[in-house]
Amino acid sequence: MSLLSIHNLVKRFGALTATDHVSLQVEQGEIHALIGPNGAGKSTLVHLISGLLPADGGSLQLAGQELIHLAPHQRVAAGLSRCFQITSIFPKLTVAENLLLAVQAHHRNSFRWFKVRDKDAGLKAQAWELAQRVQLQSDWNTVAVTMPHGAQRKLDVALALAADPKLLLLDEPLAGMGPEESLEMTALIAQLRTRHPGMAILLIEHDMDAVFQLADRITVLVYGKVFAQGTAEQIQNDPRVQAVYLGQEDELEEPEEGAA
Ligand code: ADP
Ligand code: MG
Predict the structure, then answer these.
(1) Which fold has domain 4-89+166-251?
(2) Is residue 242 classed as helix, strand or coil in its secondary structure?
(3) What angle do CA 243, 215, 201 make, to 5 degrees?
(4) Cα-flanking dihedrals φ and ψ of residue 195, to 5°?
(5) Entry pTM
(6) Surrounding residues of ion ligand 2, Cβ less than 5 A
(7) Mean pLDDT value of segment 199-221
């Protein structure tokens, strides 16, 4: 059984079918990348998975549990965690405070039988472990908003990991990053697997170097439909994908408003 199993998912915006009977499977422990030109429906699909948008049809199962009718927070409890591109960070709190809040929120009952002092120590140890996982130990006492963009993105990833997800949704984790930060984040994503075996990642990313470096399998969306699906190697060498996506990407881009 696949960890995430999406079957015939549909989302319409008026006459536009932004998600057109999309089916895909994400296996335990794999990094599955979702690529496609602008307007292909990547963000819509992520919103359908996280529950931010209601679907018009289809099913979505995580570890055998149907999620399609669940609210976003119920999907998080079921094991689905999403990075929100910094918006989940409390900007005026330190890295430590942000991580402690996240750990507390997701482990409400796990220290029920401990003395208060042991409980605090346990939570702090978990928060520190998360800081280590995203290499923010040296920023432990830094106020989040004062950190560079790349470090804030790392903190955002750590906050998502606090839920101990079965599936992590990463929506453009390299967006707005310089080349050095991109390389660092790519390495960090690759390392998440060794630290968290079994956790799968659904990665939406424009940086093709990072996608081909990280992904085990890739789904290509075009106009809301699955255009191609396969291993990173198959997609990279698929002449159809090269022709309509990688090679002549511009032809599939929707014209920008006001463009001649
Ligand atoms: P991508 O993330 O791949 O660039 P999106 O999922 O953002 O694509 O958009 C897919 C299509 O759905 C686009 O044509 C976009 O204009 C349209 N769309 C997205 N969100 C909405 C919305 N809330 N209302 C109407 N149309 C939308
Ligand atoms: Mg998008």
Answers:
(1) Rossmann fold (3.40.50)
(2) helix
(3) 130
(4) -80, -20
(5) 0.87
(6) 42-43
(7) 94
Which two three-digit tokens encode residue 219? 């789904």
Centroid of ligand 1 to alpha carbon of 44 (angstroms): 6
pLDDT at 17: 98
Tokens of 16: 């536009």
The pLDDT value given to residue 255:
46
Ligand 1 atom closest to residue 221's alpha carbon, by position in its atom list: 3
User: Using one digit for the tens of pLDDT, what is the confidence trace for 70-97?
Assistant: 999 899 989 998 876 657 899 999 999 9
Both tokens of 231, joined, read 């291993």
pLDDT at residue 260, as a whole number: 41
37 lines ligand 1 (CB under 6 A): no
Give yes or no for residue 236 CB within 6 A of ligand 1: no
Question: Which ligand 1 atom sits nearest the alpha carbon of residue 47?
Answer: 6
Q: From CA 35, how far away is CA 45, in angstroms rounded?
A: 11
42 lines ligand 1 (CB under 6 A): yes
User: From the CA of 230, how far away is ligand 1's center (Å)?
Assistant: 24
Instruction: Compute, in angstroms, the gap from residue 193 CA to the centroid of ligand 2.
Output: 25
Distance (Å) of CA 102 to CA 99, 130, 161: 5, 10, 9
Question: pLDDT tens across 115-168, in order?
Answer: 666 778 889 999 999 999 999 999 999 999 999 989 999 999 999 999 889 999
CA gyration radius, the chain: 19
